[in-house]
Automatic annotation (TrEMBL):
Residues 63-83 have a biased composition (Basic and acidic residues). This is GrpE protein homolog. GO terms for molecular function: adenyl-nucleotide exchange factor activity; protein homodimerization activity; protein-folding chaperone binding; unfolded protein binding. Belongs to the GrpE family. It comes from Mucochytrium quahogii. PANTHER family: GRPE PROTEIN, GRPE PROTEIN HOMOLOG, MITOCHONDRIAL. It is found in: Cytoplasm. One of its GO terms (cellular component) is PAM complex, Tim23 associated import motor.
Length: 254
């Protein structure tokens, strides 16, 4: 046990001596580290002071620029307000004159619209009259073209009447005579020519009396025919197209 205790004491003494030696050997290094740390801290402190100075100076410069810009903006705003007031004043001064001009312009517009309306009505009326004249002229031209031979046709009606009278005057026993046949053929050819030019013959016993187509010369009694019917034909009537150029002369049943 004495030997073990002696060895343990030696070990403790050796460890203590080692710690002392270690402190002695690393002491300069620790001091150097402490010195470097203090130098770094001093440098950082100087940098922070420099940044604060720059911030303060920049803030002062920014404050100066802001003040300058504010003054310029205020001046510009004042100039704009003066310009607006000047424009408003000019517009207010011009408003009465513009109102008068507007009233005159509106009145003139109303007058022009009234004139246009009147001229439009006159134009429509003139156009309608021109259309009526054109239509009448067209009808007149067409009528003249259609009934151009009316006078010539009327001049031949007496010839047709004479042929009819000659045929009626021939006695029954003489109707096989060549002269009678010649007169019949002549009348037939004349009526054929009339038909080719739009001339038609009308007027037969038993027709209903039409005052537009018949001329009543007398009345006669009849048991076979109805009242107001054509009972006897004195002269045949003729039409050119749809126009009566001579009414039939008849006697009507009473």
């Amino acid at each position: 046990f004495h030997f073990a205790f002696t060895m343990l004491g030696g070990i403790r003494v050796g460890m203590a001596a080692g710690r002392v030696a270690s402190r002695r050997s690393f002491g300069p290094i620790s001091a150097l580290r402490n010195t470097s740390s203090r130098a770094f801290e001093n440098k950082n402190a100087q940098r922070m002071r420099s940044m604060r100075v720059q911030n303060v100076f920049g803030a002062r410069l920014f404050s100066t620029d802001e003040k300058k810009n504010s003054e310029e903006n205020a001046k510009e705003t004042s100039e704009k307000e003066e310009t607006v007031e000047q424009v408003v004043g000019e517009e207010q001064a011009q408003e009465p004159a513009e109102a008068d001009e507007l009233a005159k312009a509106l009145k003139r517009i109303e007058e022009l619209e009234a004139e246009i309306k009147t001229q439009k009505q006159d134009t429509l009326r003139a156009y309608a009259e021109a259309e009526n004249v054109r239509e009448r002229s067209r009808r007149d031209v067409e009528s003249a073209r259609t009934y151009a031979n009316q006078k010539f046709a009327k001049s031949l009606l007496d010839v047709a009447d004479n042929l009819s009278r000659a045929i009626e005057a021939v006695a029954d026993e003489q109707r096989d005579h060549p002269l009678y046949e010649g007169v019949m053929m002549t009348e037939g050819e004349l009526l054929k020519v009339f038909g080719s030019h739009g001339i038609t013959q009308f007027g037969e016993v038993g027709e209903a009396f039409d005052p537009n187509m018949h001329e009543a010369l007398f009345t006669l009694p009849s048991e076979e025919l109805e009242k107001n019917a054509v009972g006897q034909v004195i002269k045949k009537g003729y039409k050119l197209k749809d126009r009566v150029i001579r009414p039939a002369q008849v006697g009507t049943v009473a």
